[in-house]
Amino acid sequence: MEPQIEPQLPPVSPNGLYFNSSAVSLVILAVLETEQPIRIPPHQLVSLLDTHLLSLHPRFSSVIVTGRDGEKRWKRVGVNLKDHIKTAVFPQGKSPEYYEGCFNDYLSEISAEKLPETQPLWEIHLVKYPTPNAAGNVIFKIHHAIGDGYSLMAALLSCFKRSDDPSLPLTLPSHRIRKLSSSDDGNVGSGKRAAVSRVLAAVLSTASDLWLNFSKTRFLEDDLSPIRSGDPTVGLRPISAATMTFSLDEIKQIKSQLGMTVNDVITGAVFLGTRLYMHGVDPGSDGADTTALVLLNTRMLRSYNSIEEMVKQETNSPWGNHFSFLHVTIPKLTTVTSNDSDDALEFVRAASAIIRKKRHSLAVPLTAKLLHLYRKLKGSEAAAGYVYRVMKSTSMLITNMIGPMEKMSMADHHIKGIYFLISGNPQNVQTTIVSYMGELRVSVAAEKGFIDPNTFKSCVETAFRLIRKSACATSH
């Protein structure tokens, strides 16, 4: 009798292994707020998922198995879609405000529940009760091993259509990349000096960032503070969330008035809001060493490609997890108060200067390559432990995505808002940012019972108000 030969199964990507290990297990919770009450018949929803989701990518119908070679691989399985559809049940006849509390508790509860490993690692939760923000909510709970935010946003864009004209594609915010040349400085000589200066800045910044990355895994950790407990079990606990919305046009106006970027403005507001929250809880924490870990997409693309393009063998935007991380030190608080726009502007400029130095750094692509090398030498679990230590030593997580400019819909349900959260990360607080219909939705998710997300949200809104006030004063 000839021995059975195990068919060649596609391997789990290195980054997918890091996020589905004994050290780290990250799950993305994407929340879509509907304009209309959710009234999709079960059979229609099953048909929609079969047509629009399972056909998108094999990982939506695959589980992770360990092959005979000891490597983790994706194995296609039969999918009972009814097992993946969950419907929340709350008391009937209550107010939208009551259901808002129920929804928040429900979101917190499912954030701490592990996805069953015996079936594909995703679920859809339907919350058919109105809240002050929406007539209903749909929660996509997807394990990060399936793909990163780029992949999952591309999947959503493939499933949804434009509400105003389904025949037209959804479009994304455009941005320009400024090209530097010798003419920027007026003559060739000064251009060469500027080029040399940029190279030196890149070398120094890269060396500094790589050393910080290494230090954070060995001996350097953020101070304990009102936003960092240092408890190693944080990633296993439920989170609570609050969201806020900012006009993208207003942010662009502020950045023009202050001579900054959109990223500088919103990151400055988040950082300043973080310090204001820390000060409110414990004024003695103003000088605490506090670092944000920023998760970045390493594709460096300007738009989302179609699913068909992403699954091709040769493509510059493949499906999967393509990320790296960067440490950004949050400036210390000096004399900022809830009414002091001058000190707020000084703080934001300090944050902008830190971020500007990071733009010269090559640490992001190099960190990704070094991590893959570490995996080959030490194994996937050791590399996952490295990622865990990097995350655990910092105080907060920040990540962002770009979304469509137009309103999107599916099965006659228009989506009025969208935001996302991450569960399983070993920080006590995270901030996620996504653009949709000309607005930025900023979410604060924090360990339940340790940080009040609504108070944190209020501090970020106060910080943004101070920055806007500074911009108005500067323009006059």
Automatic annotation (TrEMBL):
Q: Name one GO molecular function term.
A: long-chain-alcohol O-fatty-acyltransferase activity
Q: Name one Pfam family in it.
A: WS_DGAT_C
Example GO biological process = triglyceride biosynthetic process
Using the UniProt record, give the first listed, main subcellular location. membrane
| Catalytic activities | a long chain fatty alcohol + a fatty acyl-CoA = a long-chain alcohol wax ester + CoA; an acyl-CoA + a 1,2-diacyl-sn-glycerol = a triacyl-sn-glycerol + CoA
Q: How does it sit in the membrane?
A: Single-pass membrane protein
- Which pathway is this protein assigned to? Glycerolipid metabolism; triacylglycerol biosynthesis; Lipid metabolism
* Origin: domain of life: Eukaryota
Any single GO CC term annotated in Swiss-Prot or TrEMBL for this entry: endoplasmic reticulum membrane
| Classification via InterPro entries | O-acyltransferase_WSD1-like (IPR045034), O-acyltransferase_WSD1_C (IPR009721), O-acyltransferase_WSD1_N (IPR004255)
Residues annotated as domain O-acyltransferase WSD1 C-terminal: 319-467
Occurrences of domain O-acyltransferase WSD1-like N-terminal (ranges): 66-266
Keywords tagged on the record = Acyltransferase, Endoplasmic reticulum, Transferase
> Where is the protein localized?
Cell membrane; Endoplasmic reticulum membrane
Indicate the family of this protein: In the N-terminal section; belongs to the long-chain O-acyltransferase family.
Name of the protein in its database record: Diacylglycerol O-acyltransferase
